[in-house]
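ok, trying the design again with the full structure, not the truncated one.
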């Protein structure tokens, strides 16, 4: 079976002086390394500059971002994507399936732009 090679995207490559330095990098596929919308969401997350983000009024706002190829932010800690019919959050070592807990349904935990 063929495994796609993954590479590290260091936050220092996106921001000169990040406010949040952990994690220092994310392991991503080659296509994700080139995704400018993902870069923007990571810059927002690591600079804590949520000026263009707001809390959604409904789930439609969150899924509109997914449809537009953008990435909402969850609990001001994680960038969230929607792949293969599943919500995934980005950790240092790559994308992980997002557990469906009660917190997922609280609009105040999400930020959209």
């Amino acid at each position: 079976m063929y495994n796609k090679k993954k590479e590290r995207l260091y936050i220092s490559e996106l921001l000169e002086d990040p406010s949040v330095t952990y994690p220092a990098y994310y392991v991503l596929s080659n296509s994700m390394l080139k995704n400018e919308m993902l870069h923007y969401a990571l810059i927002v997350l690591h600079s804590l500059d949520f000026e263009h983000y707001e809390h959604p009024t409904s789930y439609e706002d969150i899924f509109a971002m997914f449809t537009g190829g953008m990435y909402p932010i969850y609990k001001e800690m994680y960038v969230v994507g929607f792949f293969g019919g599943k919500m995934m959050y980005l950790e240092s070592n790559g994308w992980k399936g997002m557990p469906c807990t009660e917190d997922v349904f609280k609009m105040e935990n999400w930020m959209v732009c």
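Keeping the full-length input from now on. The chain has one domain: 6-111.
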